[in-house]
C-alpha cells in the first residue's frame, strides 16, 4: 500500500507577536516496493509442500522406462493440471528427482497428446537446470535446494522389515513382496485370487494399510493378481522417495497400474511418525486396456 504525506503550510500571527514556527520539511518519498513473487497455486497434497510431477521424454522417443511416462516437446517436467495457467512463464521453482535437486522454470500450460486414441492431457511444463531421469519429480516453490534429496528405493526380503508375516505366509512365497524406501517398509501380501493388502511399516510397526485389488474389466485378461509381474495391474510399488528440505518431511511415491492408467499415492514420514495418505491420489488416464 502506498503512503502519502500531507503537509499543510499555515502562516498565522501569534497573539504574543512571535513568529509562526517554520514549516516542517516533507518526509522523503517511500522507496518503491519490491516486485512480489508470482502467486503459486495451492499445494496439491494435504499437509505437504509442492506438487507431484513427472519427468518427460521427447515426442519422438519410442521406448520409455514406464508406459505412463509423458511426452512433451519442450518441458523436462510436467504436472497434470491446468491450475498454473495464471502463473507467469519464467517463474522459478525447485525440483527433486531420483537423481537429486535441481532448479526449474515454469514454461507455461498446454494440451498435449497422452495415451492412446488421440487422448489429450492438460500439462503445466517446467524446464530443469540438469537432465532428469524418468519417474516422479517433486516440484516445490522457489528457494534454496539445501536439504532436498532423493532417497533409495530397494526391494528387500519380506522377513527383514521387523514385522511378523501374515499367518501362513513365507518370505520366499510369491504371495508376499517387500520394499524399503524413505525409512519405511512396504509389505505386499496376496490375500485372494484378485486381492491383496499393502502394509506400511515404520520400525517394524504398522502405520498404514490399503487394500489391493486387480478388479475385473470387460475384455481384459483374467489371470490372478501377480505381485511379481512387470506392470501387473493392481500392485502398488514405491516409485521414488524424496526428502523435501532440511526440515521437511520424507515422501514415498507409490504407483499402481490400473486397467485405464496409473494411480499414484503418497506415504509420509515425519521423524518417528508416518502415515499413508488416503485422501489424495494422482490418477493418470492413459488408455482402456
Which key phrases capture this entry?
six-stranded antiparallel beta barrel; disordered N terminus; mainly beta
Tell me what you see in this structure.
This protein has 289 residues and is mostly beta strands. It is 0% helix and 40% strand. The chain has no helices and 17 strands. It has strands spanning 51-55, 77-80, 92-97, 100-113, 120-128, 136-140, 148-151, 153-156, 176-181, 184-190, 195-202, 205-213, 236-244, 250-258, 261-270, 273-276, 282-285. The strands form three sheets. It has a six-stranded antiparallel barrel. Strands 7, 13, 14, 15, 16 and 17 form a six-stranded antiparallel β-sheet that branches. Residues 1-36 have low confidence and may be disordered.
